[in-house]
TrEMBL record, chain A:
Name by which UniProt lists this protein: Deferrochelatase
Keyword Repeat: no
Pfam families with a match to the protein in the record: Dyp_perox_C, Dyp_perox_N
Family membership: Belongs to the DyP-type peroxidase family.
Function: Involved in the recovery of exogenous heme iron. Extracts iron from heme while preserving the protoporphyrin ring intact.
Protein's gene: efeB
Enzyme Commission number, as recorded: 1.11.1.-
Group of enzyme by EC: oxidoreductase
Keywords, alphabetical: Heme, Iron, Lyase, Metal-binding, Oxidoreductase, Peroxidase, Signal
TrEMBL record, chain B:
Subcellular location field: Periplasm
Pfam families in UniProt: Cupredoxin_1 (PF13473), Peptidase_M75 (PF09375)
Gene: efeO
Protein's name in the database: Iron uptake system protein EfeO
Domain EfeO-type cupredoxin-like span(s) in chain numbering: 36-121
Family, as annotated: Belongs to the EfeM/EfeO family.
Entry superkingdom: Bacteria
Amino acid sequence: MTERRTEDLRVSRRRLLGVSGVGVLAGAAAGAGLVSAARADEDKAPAAGGAIPFHGAHQSGIATPVQDRLHFAAFDVVTDDRAKLAGLLKDWTAAAAAMTAGRPHGAGAVGGIPEAPPDDTGEALGLPASRLTLTIGFGAGLFESGGKDRFGLRARRPAALVDLPHFAGDRLDPERSGGDLAVQACADDPQVAVHAIRNLARIGFGVVSVRWSQLGFGKTSSTTPEEHTPRNMMGFKDGTSNIPGTDAELLDRHVWAAPADGSDWMAGGSYLVARRIRMHIETWDRTSLKEQEQLIGRDKAEGAAFGRTKERDPVILDRMEPNAHVRLVHPDTNGGIRILRRGYSFTDGSDGLGRLDAGLFFIAYQRDPRKGFIPLQRSLAADGLNEYLQHVGSGIWACPPGVRQGGFWGEGLF
Amino acid sequence: MRAAPVVALVGAATVSMSLLTGCGDDGGNDGATGAKGSAAAITVDATDTTCDVAKKELPAGTTTFKVTNKGSKVTEVYIYAPGDKIVTERENIGPGTGVELTTQLNAGKYQLACKPGMVGDGIRQDLTVTGQADHAADPRLTAALTAYKAYVNAQVDDTIATTGKFVAAVKKGDVAEAKKLYAPSRVGWERIEPVAESFGDLDPRVDLREADLEKGQKWTGWHRLEKALWKTKSVKGEAQYADQLVKDLAELKAKVSAETLDPPITPASMANGAKELLDEVATGKITGEEEIFSHTDLVDFAANLDGARKVHELLLPVVREKDAALAGTLDKEFQNVTDLLAEYKKGDGYVSYDTVGKADRKKLSTAVDALAEPLSRLAGVVSR
């Protein structure tokens, strides 16, 4: 990024802070997470080329207005050396700070010693920061793996970082599940997101190995309620009543872990649950409009709840079918539980049987999964949509708080 | 293997290297941040109001700036070419900490800027770079080249001797004996393959895989015989290919024993060759594509590893001095892959690769990546 002056970047950062602040999440759904979001050109958030500040009280990429594209990667730690792991987190932090600011990592992609491979892989040269955020999460394997306390961290595992139970209908593929570390890269340009994960994976050789990764091509939920709600692969608006990223009070109540929650190093962090949800696209497409709308609990065109005319009108739960998705995951059905959804649609080619391998890569952030995703997903055992869905990948990670200047990811843990 | 210029900067300043390379190296992790240390680091003392550069007139070539932040604000350092084109930069240098910034500078005018607080145009110092990069050879590198050439010749002699026995069995029609001798005959070749590959069409004649055949291309070499032995289970009509293999290896011997190799071997090409051997492992052996009929991939894997390790050992005296952390990492990662591979030993050779499951292949692949990534920096280190 030799083209860009840092001064320009800083200007755009200031502009950012001045404008819309954070994103939104709200509401209703979990599980299959059918709800909402907006398109980049409609965003009131920072312009597509802007940079999102990396440092702060919370990690970016959670309450941040949802970007258009995703590259999510889960890693296994392949060393038992605690110092090497901490060293990697420092190196990753430096690379993340550079790349989110729109700069190449290390000594750059060009201009170094011609006989040596460049530090940066180069495919993002000349591209703007594209609102790239990089968000890290720590999996259970970091605290204990095969009964072994590899890094002396066992005692520091937060109680909220539980192993997810089996949910009815789960058909999880171990090769698409779990991971000692996870990194969520979101950006408005897919090449910028892929570049970030690729470079982190390269920096990590010898310490971590990619376990699985997932590309998402279109955001579903939005954290900015004033925007148009995006549609998921079922053709319905998804994320209508997500938690707004601007609502500090809701975020504190439902998303950010607090010191009182029992794990000091997680204060200001959040818990991430990701699920790869395959949709049986072809059978869904053969379903009548009426049945589709009954299964969701909203109409397809507007997204209005049954008995209402506008998307944002309050829902009337008993007007919906008892097994309607929105009814089952609504906060009123679940003791007020809310989670922040940030999922993406995916299509990974086809499955060899002539069907699309497509669906929703569901991502949710919450203060405590035991009072968030887990009870909501249990409520969905009766979901009429289950006939059209299959959960095939899963993971849960503790995302530490944000990084201060000069600090590093997970500093409070090490 | 393309020839690369040798830029060996040695001199009085090198004695201080071990001190310099320790700087900023936390947690023993050295994998990611690129080149560290070089022959003559130039001190840059940054404070909140000053930016003192110890030397502003520099010779062309690779220069390392040793930056120390003696101020109270986080700072960053840039080197600009005219028009504020960034040559290199390093940000987030905390108070009381230091970094090393290594860059290639050609003759010309530059500016070095310290930016306390990481804002504004910074405090600038003019740099003038003159002359041409120093191409004088390090005698230790010359010694490494001589030793490597001897190694290459010994390996070619070995592969010629073992292939002679293999070919005799093929021509006798003794399939069982030929199968036993096939993998060992390739070991010497696999250890020095990047050198052989540098001689144009010799490599495809000797080592082409069936899947890589172009339309109309005649298939000769080891893998043709491999298919006859394991798939067709008959070597009828293969004698001419057995003879051709012997002839081609004799041609290889003539080329590697020449006074001056064409193209020549350089420290950078040696180091790149080591990296290429690991590339071979990563793309051909880990996947089981190399020995698709015989499944003797792990024998080739071990030979590739041996050849790469030899290069590492020969360059080690220089690498230890120029980048001690890299030398240590390579020692460790070579040992790690060697140990992992040893788990698959069986008799004089290795288990058949089709018995190695996906999870074990992933383990091998992870260990190879952990070695190949730092190994890819070796050529840059011996070139500066």
